[in-house]
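Lab notebook, design round three. We kept the backbone fixed and only want residue identities now. Task for the bench partner: fill in a sequence for the structure below.
Input structure tokens:
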């Protein structure tokens, strides 16, 4: 967890342009004082989430939205209430945006291991006509697109190799059971707009944030429909080796677009990891390419940009450790909601986090 930079550092690093007097003023008179005034571990995290999201937004529309929200916090006359408004804003982003990318354990469907060449040939024709309908279809289609390999290590999928669907180019080339990994979690695709309940409310809040951040296109592509297919679109899918998927799902690995190079990304890891510490072959830079003589969509750069922003901010603010507490408690206590959305989970985990911070 890193303290927010000073106004001078922000100006020196051009995190806020000098001409944006409103943003500089809000940062210096609202966000920084809220961080300084925080006397609880969770309040520090929440203030820094707001601050780092303000400094490193996924796009200019998100920055504009945050300016309005922080300005609203500034309308409160009493300092304590103004700071509380900032903490509440940060808590909302942790609960309803950042947390969705920290995926639960044991929720990934078992991949199919009995595919044959005829079934893949038929699948190749089918996916040119329509989007994958479920997790299994998404995995099969992504394997065709990704040359039956992990897109970040190029490890060959074992079942594809067995069925003659992938060619092992070198005798020593690693082979793994690849996984179908969703950028936005597939749990978001099971709830349609208009449904009611705690889980439905949270999912609706996720989509609302995306729309307010200027990602109307992502919302329209991935939102739940009557067939539940949106979230399984190939532009939301990566084929990954198990260890790589684990790091991706734990927000320890993300992809940052390389400017002016379409579908080129830097593979970024959490500060305590190194590329050589994960699966063999993990590169620092990757290019996504469509294989299989198919015109299939590659992972959506805009989906990856939101994921990257949330991962980066989670580690800079300390929210990543906060989420570790939540998910560890979810595994330990049977009474906790499976999706981690209940207020009791967050309250209990926050209490433990604060208590640990005092020892």
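Proposed sequence:
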């Amino acid at each position: 967890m890193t303290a927010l930079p000073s106004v001078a550092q922000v100006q020196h690093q051009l995190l806020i342009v000098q001409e944006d007097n409103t943003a500089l003023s809000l940062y210096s008179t609202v966000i920084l004082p809220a961080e300084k005034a925080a006397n609880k571990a969770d309040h520090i995290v929440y203030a820094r989430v707001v601050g780092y999201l303000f400094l490193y937004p996924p796009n200019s529309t998100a920055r504009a939205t945050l300016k309005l929200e922080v300005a609203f916090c500034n309308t409160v006359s009493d300092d304590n209430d103004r700071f509380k408004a900032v903490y509440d804003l940060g808590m909302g982003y942790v609960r309803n945006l950042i947390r969705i990318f920290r995926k639960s354990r044991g929720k990934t469907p078992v991949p199919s291991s009995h595919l044959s060449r005829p079934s893949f040939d038929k699948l190749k024709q089918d996916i040119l006509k329509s989007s994958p309908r479920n997790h299994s279809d998404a995995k099969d289609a992504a394997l065709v697109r990704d040359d039956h390999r992990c897109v970040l290590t190029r490890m060959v999928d074992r079942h594809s190799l067995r069925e003659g669907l992938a060619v092992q180019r070198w005798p020593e080339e690693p082979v793994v059971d690849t996984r179908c990994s969703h950028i936005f979690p597939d749990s978001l695709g099971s709830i349609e707009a208009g449904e009611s309940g705690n889980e439905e409310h949270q999912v609706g809040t996720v989509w609302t944030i995306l729309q307010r951040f200027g990602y109307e296109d992502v919302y329209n592509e991935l939102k739940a429909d009557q067939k539940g297919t949106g979230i399984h679109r190939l532009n939301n899918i990566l084929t990954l080796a198990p260890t790589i998927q684990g790091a991706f799902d734990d927000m320890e690995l993300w992809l940052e677009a390389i400017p002016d190079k379409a579908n080129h990304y830097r593979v970024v890891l959490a500060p305590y990891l190194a590329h050589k510490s994960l699966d063999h072959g993990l590169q620092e830079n990757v290019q996504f390419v469509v294989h299989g003589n198919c015109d299939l969509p590659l992972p959506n750069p805009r989906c990856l940009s939101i994921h990257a922003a949330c991962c980066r901010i989670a580690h800079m603010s300390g929210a990543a450790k906060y989420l570790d507490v939540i998910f560890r408690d979810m595994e330990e206590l049977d009474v906790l909601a499976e999706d981690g959305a209940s207020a009791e989970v967050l309250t209990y985990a926050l209490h433990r986090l604060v208590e640990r911070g005092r020892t």
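Keep this in mind before ordering anything: Residues 1-96 form one domain.
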